TrEMBL record:
Domain (Putative zinc-finger) ranges: 67-96
The Mycothiol-dependent maleylpyruvate isomerase metal-binding domain, residue ranges: 147-295
Organism: Streptomyces atroolivaceus
Keywords: Transcription, Transcription regulation
InterPro entries hit by this protein: Anti_sigma_zinc_sf, DinB/YfiT-like, MDMPI_metal-binding, Znf_put
A UniProt-annotated Pfam family: MDMPI_N
Record field: compositional bias (Basic and acidic residues): 1-20
Name of the protein: Zf-HC2 domain-containing protein
Extent of Pro residues compositional bias: 43-61
UniProt region (Disordered), positions on chain: 1-62, 206-226
Signal peptide per UniProt: none
Length: 426
């Protein structure tokens, strides 16, 4: 059994470990044999020694590796470049982040995904431009909402097809305590906006879109709209867009050049009047509301105004509510006042709490438009979303469905909500 142990087999010594040799290489794996020399032949020349190994290539500089990231993301680098880039990415966090972004961008180029733009992209870009681009002629802050809303609506109109100008649109508003409506088209809505904007144009001495004709144009928004629609020889088409947009540009340009005093100029609406700054704010509100009507008709995404502009619109409606409530009380559509208050003194108030975009707190005087709304004399509270409140004021939401939260005097709450709806009109 000694053959199973290493060493020389002498007794008393520990045998050494025996190593098993590896497999012997084949003959053709060995170095080539020297050539056979024939008698009388010259000895062969010795082979030339191999070239010494050259120095390793220097590593690529950072700027070169960074410039290769785009090609790397597209798998367009050579093997050496790919190895160099990937080794660099393990030690450079900034290039690693950029490489990930480029790989994500390359993923968007695959044809199995949609290449359609986000439908809200135009709206976001336009809102950003309106908020950041400095105007050559500064637009007064009170005219900025009108400038922004006419620009947003014009962007919508530029996108729609010729056939969509004839899409049906149903305009809604409140008369008394009843919601009424009128059917028209997209082009008809723009004609309506242009006709009512003409009240502001006339007050500023600009051309009236209704012209002079045989008599004076109607003094009320509804009368002017009906006159415009009746005078049209055929239903309005997309050709109405250019005069409407020219008119809005003229209004903004005129008030921008006019200076500070023009803000308080009175703009008559027939049975009432508004200062120019409130009138342009009211026109901005109408432009947004009817822009939404058009967007619904042509299935176009349309966002609410900027928060600061929306808050101004809500504030205008809140300031108009006491006088509107007083007028409804005069014709028997609201409960009689419970207290007689003198001008400038506090009376009963309703706390209007508007939440969300454009939110804030307003205290609506209930007994007299000359009274002051006060938190100390609040008898009721109404809470609702800012956009929802504007839809109520536009006549698009029934008053009984508007308020999300109500507390206190139920009669006062009902009167204020219906007064808000009655601010709407054609």
């Amino acid at each position: 059994m000694n053959g199973d142990h290493g060493g020389d087999g002498r007794d008393g010594e520990q045998p050494a470990e025996r190593r098993i040799p590896g497999p012997r290489a084949a003959a053709d794996d060995q170095e080539s044999l020297p050539p056979v020399r024939h008698r009388g032949s010259e000895p062969p020349e010795p082979p030339e020694p191999p070239d010494p190994p050259g120095p390793s290539a220097p590593p690529l500089p950072h700027r070169v590796l960074k410039s290769l990231l785009g090609a790397w993301a597209l798998a367009a680098c050579s093997a050496e470049e790919t190895a160099a880039v990937e080794e660099h990415l393990t030690s450079c966090a900034r290039c690693a982040d950029e490489a990930l972004r480029l790989r994500d961008a390359v993923g968007l180029l695959h044809t199995d995904g949609t290449l359609d733009l986000d439908p809200m992209l135009r709206s976001r870009v336009l809102e950003g431009c309106l908020g950041r681009r400095p105007a050559r002629i500064p637009v007064p802050s009170w005219a900025a909402p009108y400038d922004a809303e006419t620009a947003r609506l014009d962007a919508l109109l530029r996108d729609i097809r010729d056939s969509e100008w004839h899409a049906p649109v149903r305009l809604k508003w409140f008369e008394g305590d009843q919601q009424v409506n009128r059917r028209t088209t997209v082009a008809g809505v723009i004609g309506h906006l242009m006709a009512v904007d003409g009240l502001v144009s006339t007050a500023l001495g600009l051309d009236d879109p209704l012209g002079k004709g045989d008599g004076s144009p109607p003094p009320t928004p509804t009368g002017r709209t009906e006159a415009y629609w009746s005078a049209a020889l055929r239903p309005p088409t997309r050709t109405v867009r250019e005069p409407w947009r020219d008119q809005s540009h003229s209004l903004v340009r005129t008030v921008s050049f006019a200076g500070r005093g023009v803000a308080e100029m009175s703009v008559p609406y027939g049975d009432f009047a508004l200062p120019l700054q409130d009138s342009l704010l009211e026109r901005a509100f109408e432009c947004w509301v009817h822009g939404g009507d058009i967007a619904d008709a042509v299935d176009y995404p349309y966002e609410p105004p900027a928060a600061a502009h929306l808050q101004r619109m809500i504030d205008l409606a809140a300031r108009l509510l006491p006088a509107t409530l007083s007028e409804r009380r005069r014709v028997g559509l609201a409960a009689p006042a419970r207290h007689l208050v003198t001008a400038g003194s506090p009376g009963r108030s309703l706390h209007l709490e508007v939440e969300g975009r454009g939110g804030g707190d307003w205290y609506i005087a209930l007994d007299s438009p000359a009274a002051l709304g006060s938190a100390d004399h609040t008898v009721a509270q109404v809470a609702l979303d800012g956009v929802e409140f504007c839809r109520l004021v536009a006549g698009h939401v029934p008053p009984v469905e508007a308020a999300a939260g109500q507390e206190g005097d139920r009669e006062a709450i009902r009167d204020v909500l219906f007064a808000a709806a009655s601010l709407s009109r054609l």
